[in-house]
Amino acid sequence: MLRSSAITGGIQRSPNRAMLRAVGFNDDDFNKPIIGIANGYSTITPCNLGLNDLAKASEEALRNKGAMPQMFGTITVSDGISMGTEGMKYSLVSREVIADAIETACNAQSMDGVLAIGGCDKNMPGAMLAMARMNIPAIFVYGGTIKPGRLNNSDLTVVSAFEAVGQFANGKIDKEQLLAIEKHACPGAGSCGGMFTANTMSAAIETMGLSLPFSSTMAAEDEEKTENAKQSAHALVKAIQANIRPLDILSKKAFENAISVVMAIGGSTNAVLHLLAIAKTAGIDLCIDDFERIRQKVPVICDLKPSGRFVTVDLHKAGGIPQVMKLLLDGGLLHGECITIEGKTITESLQNIPSTPPNSQEIIRPLSKPLYKKGHLAILKGNLASEGSVAKISGVKTPEITGPARVFESEESCLEAILNNQIKAGDVIVIRYEGPVGGPGMREMLAPTSAIVGQGLGDKVALITDGRFSGGTYGMVVGHVAPEAAVGGTIALVQEGDSITINAERSLIQLNVDDNELELRRSIWIAPKSRYTKGVLGKYGRLVSSSSKGAITDQI
Predict the structure, then answer these.
(1) pTM for this entry
(2) Best CA proximity match to 192, nearest among 124, 100, 137
(3) Active-site annotation, residues
């Protein structure tokens, strides 16, 4: 029986049906599945600018397949616009708001399925959290990636603009060049064009089987993206008929597949946070150590920005995520028995994908000739992060550094020091009280890391934080340090000039201070009062779990 029968069936439901007639239901429609379209359209960000067209295309396709679509809106915020400001505290929080909104609308109206459409970073994990909570047939439609900007025969992304700020501060470019990069970096609709967080999460969702093959790397402005929205609607109707639900798909092996692909494509550190959160909600025993275990086996085989040469539309032309998955499957690095929303196994879905990437491209390498022999997202532990931390080491020549701590209590104070040329080669920058509780909201540190790269210090300076990093960040950076400073983690005890060691090969992050001295510092440490006691940030700070558990608010 359809879930929507609770509001459409029987003579006693006449008042409910009267309301539905007002929005377009006729007599025959009350026996059809009601499918929610969670539409993340907004003009706040280019990531979501084209979503309304996709929502309308999927709406028409659902009707043509005998379903009754019910469209509702979900929020988004632009990380790229809020980056480096107080507003960035709301970014990770928006993931929970999106999940709550989709769950609320679908369950309140007893919908039989949901097609979620999103573009910006938190749309995807937010939708996945809702799907895992509700466990009704569901599919995700990615709004698509932006096409690269072009300037002086070079591809640009939004990160190019952030790095240009550091170049300008260091005298490497003038004001006119800075403005030219700003004007050309983002040419139209779509999510940030490198293998940043949005494209990483869309790839992970495709790998896990809750979106259709090839959909995660399509350009937002290409016609195939509209066709993909229609095909996704058709697939969802079939899934309702076959009763295929998210928790049938989201197995431990499906998460391991997603991690393998994230490693292979050089994806964002945020994938660790989001996959842990989704797994926790789905009841899957996934932990932060699973990422390190898989990293040891899976190489980086895609040459993609931010540390590489190419953008996501180039990956799409080279065969997209299915081509990457086929190489991993043939190499014994993927679980082929996992099922997808189409009811196929991964092996069946990849049956017609060639076992070698096209010779005419340089983006996807064979397993025998990887960019890096091991994955790029290293899980580091030690007295500075007993619960773990995440280092992104792609593009780093020497993944080990020992140096003096340069301590900052906020992102803004650190950025000011960088732009004033107060950071030197060999320094280990510490930005704290930016974690899930301390921020609250765990801001991304793209502005400081891009400024470091722009000044030519990307291989010479390390940065650690209990906050996050943008998918556009690269260099010797370590985020998600847990326990965070606001709850008394060791990062709160670091003093200016303390020696810190980061060694990705040994999975180590260590404060080189005597245990007795640390205990003394701990005994006099006082937790700072949060600046946010009300509203969504105050509520989030009171509810949120550790980043090592996904920074979720509904299960702690």
Answers:
(1) 0.95
(2) 124
(3) 470
